Amino acid sequence: TVSAKDRGAIILAGHEADAAYWLDRKSTGRFTTSLFYRDALLEWVRAWDAAHVLSGVPSQWKHEEGAGDVSPRADDHRGEDDYFSRTTPHPIKAKGDSMASIEAFSYTPYLDQRTLDFARQLVEEEGLGEEAGRTDLLAVSLSGTDIIGHLYGPLSHESADALRILDADLGRFLDFLEKRVGREHLLVVLSSDHGVQALPEWLEGSSAPCSIPSGRLSPKRLEVSLKSHLDERFGTSPPDWFIRNHLGFLFLPEERTGVHPKEVET
Predict the structure, then answer these.
(1) Closest by alpha carbon to 31, among 18, 15, 47?
(2) pLDDT per residue over 224-250, tens digit each?
(3) CA distances from 114 to 81, 88, 117, 118 (A)
(4) pTM for this model (two decimals)
(5) Parallel, antiparallel, or unpaired for β 2-3 and 21-23?
(6) Is the Cβ–Cβ distance between 155 and 73 less than 8 Å?
């Protein structure tokens, strides 16, 4: 399995995979694996360091002209994250800082592009599909649309352009596989684990197709408020029954709380 996220590769691989590879976006910027699968990185994997991952990636992500034609809103919208610019072009390469470049690169469609490039070389190096009578399984988890959606929302120009680029990249990867093993020997399964929620600022605005009461809330403020409420309701020290069963307040029987469990959960 291959993914830009460790969990995307490891969970997808299961317990008995030959290998799971992911991009270490936090410390090294290279594709790597775990001692669970390999005692050491193979030579061809070792070559996928941060410099190699970024090779061929442009210094900026510029949306293709007309990206706004498939997006229902302006390129710059309230609620979008401005860390890597809310509008095109988005900076990618930071001179002299490979990890800063890897971080910026992770919020662009080139993350999936390079993931598929790695998967292509894996197919060649591991000889997948070459042995008659044997089925090889390659699972690739693509993370770019999720990460981009978190920053800009699914209705953004960024998401529209990322899907356009991913569509072309995925098409080239499938063409490569078909040419390698023949269409009659290839089974392709596409799935998705989740979507991306629209920006609260978009949903609450008058321009939204279905305007609903919503907004953005600080998780820290929510945590403080919730803790204060629970302390007031149950006390600051955990009672004996909580320590014994470790289930927490959501699972209290009605007679112990005086409140219906559903009301406590709400």
Answers:
(1) 47
(2) 898 888 888 888 776 665 555 554 444
(3) 24, 21, 5, 6
(4) 0.81
(5) parallel
(6) yes
Residues 24/31, Cβ–Cβ less than 8 Å: yes
Give the tokens for residue 153. Answer: 């929302």
**Gap between the Cα atoms of 170 and 116, Å rounded:** 8
DSSP code at position 67 = G
DSSP state of 44: H
pLDDT 10s digits, 83-116:
999 999 999 999 899 999 999 999 999 999 999 9
User: Exposed, middle or buried by CB within 10 Å (0-12, 13-18, 19+), for 213?
Assistant: exposed
With beta carbons less than 8 A apart as the criterion, state whether 247 and 264 touch.
no
User: How many angstroms separate the most distant Cα atoms in the chain?
Assistant: 68
Task: Give Cβ neighbours of residue 77 (< 8 Å, ≥ 6 apart).
Answer: 86, 153, 156, 199, 201, 202
Measured in degrees and rounded to the nearest 5, phi and psi for residue 23 equal: -90, 120
Task: Number of helices (H) and strands (E) in the chain: give both, helices first.
Answer: 12, 6
